[in-house]
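Page 47, continued from p. 46.
Same chain as before, 326 aa.
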Amino acid sequence: MNWLRLATESDDSIVRWLFLVNGWTLGLASGVFAVGLVFLAWNWWRAGRDRIYRRSPMLAGSSAETVRPLRYGPPIVIEYTPPEGIRPAHIGMLLRERVGDREFTATLADFAARKYVLVEEVAQGGQYGGPAWRISRLKDGDGLALWERTIFDQLFVDDGVTHLDALRPGYWWALTRAELQIREDVVLRGWFARDPETVKQTWRRIGTGTVVAGFAFSFLMGSAIRIGLVGVAISAIGLLMIATSPWMPRRTASGSEMLRRSLGFKTYVTEAEARRHEFDEQRTLFSEYLPYAIVFGSADRWAAAFHQVNTLDVLRMYVPGERNHN
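Result:
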């Protein structure tokens, strides 16, 4: 079928010409698809699987690493404090490999817990009919990490007081910058081999290009020698690359260990309500660990353990809803 004839044929005739179905074309397309699957599996096996320590890093000579086994479940030991040097947004990255509203809300609560800001309910009638919140600066942002300073400085552009309902557009841009800085931070700390979002975006772009290449192959080679089914197989591989892109970021052994310890602390926070009698004399823990409870999605249980039901309103001081990733 030449190009002129192809242009004048009916849609059914074009499809039948481009996508000839017989044993040879089906076998060829199946072979291409199988090779693509092997390629995807090999890349994930080689580059996408987390690393772990062979032995506990608490033991001498335990720095040797290995690839995480397929059915590996890290031994979770309850931890009563957050792992050293880790902030709530870091835990969000370790758990979900992304930063969203939950992490930024936890960061605001963390500023309050560390006495950088004071969060006060000033009136009803805030956004979405909830309470209105005023944030007052208590001290300068010295000692904050770069990404924390980006958020903190944008909160108080004009003076030392701001209202959540009146945050300027520049604040939302600051959150975007802070998200990139957090991703860079977890790589610098050695928890991820590469920026997880960059890895996922790279695979999505390659997958999208593969889908387009498959369509082009179907039309060009289908027109010439009627093997359009091979192009369908190529496009299917591209779609699989897009779908499996969240599996490609790789934690280092240090990152896997920090995740294991964070899960141990999550166990402590999520089981707090069942042991509420233990917290009667530890009231200061409520505000100190509340940011982590927000990240774990266990803020209601944490508040209930301290009989602080009314403080759950604080959790509704969300950063912009249009940025919600969770």
